Amino acid sequence: MTTPPAPFLDEIIATLGADSVVGDDPVVVRPRSTAEVAAVVRSCRDHGVAIVPRGGDTGLSGGTDLPVDRSAIVLSLDRLDLIESVDPDRWTITAQAGVTIQALQEAATGVDRKFAPDWGARGTATIGGAIATDAGGNNVVRYGNLRDNVMGIEVVLADGRIWDGRRALRKDSSGYDLKQLFIGAEGTLGVVTSAVLRLVPATPYTQSALAAITGLDALMPLLALAHEQAPAVLTAFELMPDVAIERVCSRYAVTHPMPNRAEHHLLVTLASSEPVTDMLTAFLHAGSRAGLITDAAVAATAEQESSLWFFRDEIPPPRAYPDHHAVGLKLDTAVPIDRISEFVQRVGALAATLTPGAHCYGFGHVGDGNIHMMVLPTDDGAVDDFLERKPVLQRAVDALVFELDGTLSAEHGLGTLLRDRVEPQKPPVEWDLMRTLKAALDPADLCNPGKMLPPVQS
């Protein structure tokens, strides 16, 4: 990356003030409003400076990496942190891009409503970044991905114009649904500055259980039982391998929540405006009678509820394996839900063959097919050997994902991490359509260049 030219920086400082430009490698610009974002984008257009938007900086796919071959700025949206309105009658909340997910949840709770999207980085992740990656999280099985919770957005386009599409309409058949172009686009088509978000009924009665299951083949029968015994209130259905729970116990010196353990566990959460204990009990009994559940720990208090979810929040590799997670093969894959068991088992077999001695486990969102697989070395002495073998394993796992009609990115985006690997997932015409959209909306390739779209093969 080259430093933006001095005339550009002088123009930005004159427009926004000196306190809005910090650093020099990289240069970070911090506008306070949509109008200031638009002014920055226009200056970038005039001077040929690339724009890399940044939200809470919790991304996992290199979506905020800076280009190495051109001048660029980081466009931080942290000052756009205003919740503009909370409207319980419309069941909406309108917020600027820098508002955190946790702040949205708390604001919704304050009017007896719920903002449903949720994941471990809720206190740092911002709604702008979440929209840019179409983030998912723990509650997708019931409430859908971010795009299912967005009713309208405001965007600064690549030419500096502002499109205000923040409409709180439940039905609108008046043309293309343009907001969907920007949701999941990772800032490559424009900068999302504000959004109207959907609220859902509050669920004051929330209860979880951690169940020891007989194996991965039990997942689909148990999912069917959960929908049967708890219709419309199943909120989370998470796979948690025992090896990962053990790791959390060791790192934080806490007691394992299960008296009788199994190789794999399910964390199941029901939530409603009415008590859910009877439905949760019915599900666990049905699973036990079917020979699918061998034991369960049921949260009876808010403290126990929090404790079970502590384990789920802490099993991702950056928390569970801080020493070696950075060199591991980290997967944000999704496959058709009926192929989850096959996928986890086959990745494990590939890892055992191609990276012998490496640690492999899968966890995550069974209800929507998004299983996060992780393969990493288990000790310092194995790192070099693992890194030598990792490319072969990565290619083999990617090929398996494509064979199973899956995706390499379920909720984290493509960024630079997956950009060069994802092309076989879609037919050429699909990539051509995406490139056509990019060229039409951002002909100078100023908006987060080098992300998401695979390079054109010469």
Write a compact overview of the structure shown.
The chain is an alpha+beta fold. Helix content is 33%, strand content 22%. It folds into four domains: 6-76, Uridine Diphospho-n-acetylenolpyruvylglucosamine Reductase, domain 2; 83-201, Uridine Diphospho-n-acetylenolpyruvylglucosamine Reductase, domain 3; 205-315, Alpha-Beta Plaits (2-Layer Sandwich), CATH 3.30.70; 323-403, Alpha-Beta Plaits (2-Layer Sandwich), CATH 3.30.70.
Descriptive report:
The protein starts with 5 loop residues before the first helix and ends in a 17-residue tail after the last helix. It is 33% helix and 22% strand. The longest helix is centred in the C-terminal third of the chain and has 21 residues, at 383-403. The protein has 14 helices and 19 strands. The chain is an alpha+beta fold and 458 residues long. The chain folds into four domains: 6-76, Uridine Diphospho-n-acetylenolpyruvylglucosamine Reductase, domain 2, CATH 3.30.43; 83-201, Uridine Diphospho-n-acetylenolpyruvylglucosamine Reductase, domain 3, CATH 3.30.465.10; 205-315, Alpha-Beta Plaits; 323-403, Alpha-Beta Plaits (2-Layer Sandwich).
Secondary-structure map:
Elements: H1 6-16, E1 21-22, E2 28-29, H2 34-47, E3 50-54, E4 72-76, E5 83-87, E6 92-96, H3 101-109, E7 113-114, H4 127-133, H5 140-143, E8 150-157, E9 162-165, H6 179-182, E10 190-198, E11 200-201, E12 205-213, H7 219-229, E13 234-241, H8 242-252, E14 264-272, H9 277-289, E15 293-298, H10 302-314, H11 317-320, E16 329-330, E17 333-334, H12 340-354, E18 359-365, E19 370-376, H13 383-403, H14 428-441
Parallel strand pairs: 2-4, 3-4
Antiparallel strand pairs: 1-2, 5-6, 6-10, 7-11, 8-9, 8-10, 12-14, 12-15, 13-14, 13-18, 16-19, 17-19, 18-19
Helix pairs in contact: 1-2, 7-9, 12-13
